[in-house]
Design brief:
Largest sheet: 6 strands, mixed
Helix content: 40-55%
Structural class: alpha/beta
CATH topology: Transcription Regulator spoIIAA
Strand content: 15-25%
CATH class: Alpha Beta
Number of helices: 5
Strand order of the largest sheet: 5-4-3-2-1-6
Length: about 170
């Protein structure tokens, strides 16, 4: 993950496959930047080949927290930049595409930016299970059709998380 921080916006570039492990770092990053007052996020997906359901759920949850697509003149939004057709199709089939502004083209930085590389944090097994469960619950709450897709995996994850908390896992 590459992060460019401007005065009024943040650009996060996701490269390769966006998965469970990267979803924790992504959620931590955007939550902290949002807490610091940033309200406009560009998620550069031009190098992202695929997203798993956990990352999709984390991304959808972030889009929901940011208020979905905003009207012109409001500087709070999550813009997905150059998502490939497969990622766009996944977001649409899960019923969460409406939470994002989609943009295709070339990325132009309008102001001075600072670039950093986000290093993985090495989440625990319990943190991974919790993130995965929350992401799937988010997808099910946003679109009732997702309940049949993720009901079994959510039940498994809830049981796994309970076992990890009790020390049985």
């Amino acid at each position: 993950m590459w992060v460019l921080v401007g005065e009024k916006f943040v650009c996060v570039r996701i490269a390769g496959r966006a998965s469970l492990t990267s979803s924790i770092d992504f959620k931590t990053l955007v939550s902290e930047l949002r807490r610091r007052g940033y309200g406009y996020f560009v998620i550069d997906l031009s190098q992202c080949s695929l997203m798993d359901s956990t990352f999709l759920g984390v991304l959808a949850g972030f889009g929901l927290k940011m208020g979905g697509v905003q009207k012109e003149g409001i500087d709070r939004a999550v813009e997905l930049f150059n998502p490939n057709p497969r990622v766009t199709e996944l977001l649409e089939s899960l019923g969460v595409l409406h939470l994002f502004k989609l943009t295709q083209g070339s990325l132009e930085m309008p102001e001075a930016t600072q670039t950093t590389v986000q290093c993985p944090t090495g989440a625990t097994r319990e943190e991974l299970a919790r993130a995965c469960l929350e992401a799937h619950q988010t997808l099910m709450s946003l679109n009732p059709e997702n309940a049949s897709r993720f009901k079994d995996v959510s039940q498994f994850l809830a049981k796994d998380l309970q076992n990890l908390k009790s020390g049985a896992g």
